[in-house]
Amino acid sequence: MNVTITPSAVAGTARAPPSKSYTHRAILAAGYADGATVRDALWSADTRATARAVELFGGDVDRADDGTLEIDGFDGRPEVPADVIDCGNSGTTMRLVTAAAALADGTTVLTGDESLRSRPQGPLLEALADLDAEAFSTRGNGQAPLVVPGPLAGGEVSIPGDVSSQYITALLLAGAVTDEGIAIDLETELKSAPYVDITLEMLEDFGVEARKTDAGFEADGGQSYAPAGGEYAVPGDFSSISYPLAAGAIASDEGLRIEGANPSAQGDTAIVEIVERMGADVDWDRDAGVIDVSKAPLSGIEVSVEDTPDLLPTIATLGAVADGDTRITNAEHVRYKETDRVSAMAEELGKMGVETTEREDSLTIHGGESTLEGATVSGRDDHRIIMALALAGLVADGETTVEGADHVDVSFPGFFDLLADLGVDLERDDA
């Protein structure tokens, strides 16, 4: 699907979609449990992949009309899947499920789409091997397809922290149900640290004890997953909130309200401060979970995405609108997502007349030297690139067509419906 956006003002109320990060973890945590109810879950292409994995491990995921997930778990001992686990485009699914697969008494095979088969899994495979749980890449390059014979008993392992925090999350989730537990020593500084904070928060909510240590993280063994009252509610997603928040900052004279913005361990709550620092009129009522934002002249800033890689595309679009330079630093790990998001934003914004300077670990957007013009741009089969480019179309001179826009289903299935409800003039072409 291609979407063509005509410059538009936005106004009204937007509701934050549920958190993708929390939903992935909640579905799998309920799988590790005997069972649980997961409320307010995001039902997207990525989270459905995690649900399919739970079912292949012997669990069952039933979605009610109101979106509630009733999950029968595999109680810490996954069955050997009867089929290959297809993780689609979901890197989170592959990494979290790879560690779960190591608990099964037999061989599990995992694969995904072309993009996922190009993303690094090697450090996790090496960590599992160091824990005497056999796991390997069929092509010997640290990338899927993956074969995981297991079994995982637990123990102490070291792993780099600067490739993906999801490796640590995967090991903690699985390690809690092993006999020995798991102790993780970080070989390097941890990137995207708030995502591990999310995991620790989630484990606590499911009755599992895990903690930070001087060397890294650890989880005791022999634990059981069981949320209080058998239920868990997923909070709103600040990665997704970044898009209506940015839309309000660049295209809302009347003001835009965002509901469901309750504080949590998500690092991407930083987007509120970033938009405010750039000059937008922002008020966040944390108790009510409501953000009000309206348009104001924006100025470029310097911001690190070391802990918030998913925000880079949104910040890049804000920088294209702002006066002066916006320098996004500590961004090298953002190149290993669904696409190389650093290059993707530089190249696609370039088609719209935006001047950028790209370095290995940074992206500078020269807003003051740019004229944002409508163009045909590629979404790169990446939900975050698509949504960020759509925002640029709100204020570009002329129409902007985003190709491959259906990939927003990965994290924000109703994104274009929301834009239309907020007053955006857009046309969808399914051809």
Automatic annotation (TrEMBL):
<keyword id="KW-0963">Cytoplasm</keyword>
<feature type="binding site">
    <location>
        <position position="20"/>
    </location>
    <ligand>
        <name>phosphoenolpyruvate</name>
    </ligand>
</feature>
<feature type="binding site">
    <location>
        <position position="341"/>
    </location>
    <ligand>
        <name>phosphoenolpyruvate</name>
    </ligand>
</feature>
<feature type="binding site">
    <location>
        <position position="384"/>
    </location>
    <ligand>
        <name>phosphoenolpyruvate</name>
    </ligand>
</feature>
<comment type="pathway">
    <text>Metabolic intermediate biosynthesis; chorismate biosynthesis; chorismate from D-erythrose 4-phosphate and phosphoenolpyruvate: step 6/7.</text>
</comment>
<feature type="binding site">
    <location>
        <position position="21"/>
    </location>
    <ligand>
        <name>3-phosphoshikimate</name>
    </ligand>
</feature>
<feature type="domain" description="Enolpyruvate transferase">
    <location>
        <begin position="7"/>
        <end position="418"/>
    </location>
</feature>
<protein>
    <recommendedName>
        <fullName>3-phosphoshikimate 1-carboxyvinyltransferase</fullName>
        <ecNumber>2.5.1.19</ecNumber>
    </recommendedName>
</protein>
<feature type="binding site">
    <location>
        <position position="20"/>
    </location>
    <ligand>
        <name>3-phosphoshikimate</name>
    </ligand>
</feature>
<dbReference type="GO" id="GO:0009073">
    <property type="term" value="P:aromatic amino acid family biosynthetic process"/>
</dbReference>
<feature type="binding site">
    <location>
        <position position="166"/>
    </location>
    <ligand>
        <name>3-phosphoshikimate</name>
    </ligand>
</feature>
<dbReference type="InterPro" id="IPR036968">
    <property type="entry name" value="Enolpyruvate_Tfrase_sf"/>
</dbReference>
<feature type="binding site">
    <location>
        <position position="192"/>
    </location>
    <ligand>
        <name>3-phosphoshikimate</name>
    </ligand>
</feature>
<feature type="binding site">
    <location>
        <position position="119"/>
    </location>
    <ligand>
        <name>phosphoenolpyruvate</name>
    </ligand>
</feature>
<feature type="active site" description="Proton acceptor">
    <location>
        <position position="310"/>
    </location>
</feature>
<comment type="function">
    <text>Catalyzes the transfer of the enolpyruvyl moiety of phosphoenolpyruvate (PEP) to the 5-hydroxyl of shikimate-3-phosphate (S3P) to produce enolpyruvyl shikimate-3-phosphate and inorganic phosphate.</text>
</comment>
<feature type="binding site">
    <location>
        <position position="310"/>
    </location>
    <ligand>
        <name>3-phosphoshikimate</name>
    </ligand>
</feature>
<dbReference type="GO" id="GO:0008652">
    <property type="term" value="P:amino acid biosynthetic process"/>
</dbReference>
<dbReference type="GO" id="GO:0009423">
    <property type="term" value="P:chorismate biosynthetic process"/>
</dbReference>
<comment type="similarity">
    <text>Belongs to the EPSP synthase family.</text>
</comment>
<dbReference type="InterPro" id="IPR023193">
    <property type="entry name" value="EPSP_synthase_CS"/>
</dbReference>
<feature type="binding site">
    <location>
        <position position="91"/>
    </location>
    <ligand>
        <name>phosphoenolpyruvate</name>
    </ligand>
</feature>
<feature type="binding site">
    <location>
        <position position="165"/>
    </location>
    <ligand>
        <name>3-phosphoshikimate</name>
    </ligand>
</feature>
<feature type="binding site">
    <location>
        <position position="164"/>
    </location>
    <ligand>
        <name>3-phosphoshikimate</name>
    </ligand>
</feature>
<keyword id="KW-0808">Transferase</keyword>
<comment type="subunit">
    <text>Monomer.</text>
</comment>
<dbReference type="InterPro" id="IPR006264">
    <property type="entry name" value="EPSP_synthase"/>
</dbReference>
<keyword id="KW-0057">Aromatic amino acid biosynthesis</keyword>
<dbReference type="InterPro" id="IPR001986">
    <property type="entry name" value="Enolpyruvate_Tfrase_dom"/>
</dbReference>
<feature type="binding site">
    <location>
        <position position="337"/>
    </location>
    <ligand>
        <name>3-phosphoshikimate</name>
    </ligand>
</feature>
<dbReference type="GO" id="GO:0003866">
    <property type="term" value="F:3-phosphoshikimate 1-carboxyvinyltransferase activity"/>
</dbReference>
<dbReference type="InterPro" id="IPR013792">
    <property type="entry name" value="RNA3'P_cycl/enolpyr_Trfase_a/b"/>
</dbReference>
<dbReference type="Pfam" id="PF00275">
    <property type="entry name" value="EPSP_synthase"/>
</dbReference>
<dbReference type="GO" id="GO:0005737">
    <property type="term" value="C:cytoplasm"/>
</dbReference>
<keyword id="KW-0028">Amino-acid biosynthesis</keyword>
<feature type="binding site">
    <location>
        <position position="25"/>
    </location>
    <ligand>
        <name>3-phosphoshikimate</name>
    </ligand>
</feature>
<feature type="binding site">
    <location>
        <position position="166"/>
    </location>
    <ligand>
        <name>phosphoenolpyruvate</name>
    </ligand>
</feature>
